[in-house]
Amino acid sequence: MPKVQVEFINTCASCAEHEVNIKNAVEKYGDDVELKIYHAGKDVGYLKKYGMIFKGTMIINGRQKIDNLTKKNIEEAIDAAVRSNNS
Known about the structure:
Layout: E1 4-10, H1 16-27, E2 33-39, H2 45-50, E3 57-60, E4 64-66, H3 71-86
Parallel strand pairs: 1-2
Antiparallel strand pairs: 1-3, 3-4
């Protein structure tokens, strides 16, 4: 079964909180979720895939972009992706 891929593009210092929330949400699922974090200005790997992103954005399985990030939104989106991946 393929893993759920969660990517987060950290664009600013205030996105650090989202990064922590995403890491905590992903930890619950162990090996079922693969997390990749990009830091704008340091990492460029996301540019080819998603283009320029100016706001902290979480991307699930390369398709679902979420930029309205709250702890609740992050946890719900990751949980839904894991459940749909397991069904």
